[in-house]
Input
Amino acid sequence: MNETAKLEIKQLGPHNSPERADRDARLISVLGHTALYEAYYSQDDSYNAARYITETYAPDRLASELLDPTITYFVIYQDEKAVGFAKFRIGGTHESVTSRNAVELQRIYIIEHVYATGVGEHLLKFCLDHARSKGFDTLWLGVWEENLRARRFYEKHGFRRVGTVTFPYADAVGTNHVMQIDLAKKAAV
Output
């Protein structure tokens, strides 16, 4: 990361205002479209990726999520420009997760422009600290088995594989590795 780059993370949601949810949904939509296509274009069929991305990151769907009290988004800014996001979801722990006091990091993405600059590590560290501050003892996530870059990133930072889950999207079915980290241990970020 550029030593002079300023990183800031802002919480988006849960909102009480549909107008604010609509505004924030548009930002997350653009980030989601960009980051996901960049992350998966070489690993997936273009039409399946496009269908999944446009459905998942439709502004109306995101606005509804931003009004849901079980979902919180965090957007990371580099020099006041949005470059990534994370999504927390409370409830619905996967059966292979070993803790019942767990929170899901359902999404964490950064745009390709900031890969290998420390932005992703900064956002992950924030997520780990946030989960600890809310009293959770485990953070878990699903990562596509073919996304080797992400799997290595999580393993490097202390996550371990505890199971798998099928992930239907568009006209395909993928397999996600379910990974978790014990928040009582210090992360290697």
Observations:
- Residues 18-40 form the longest helix (23 residues).
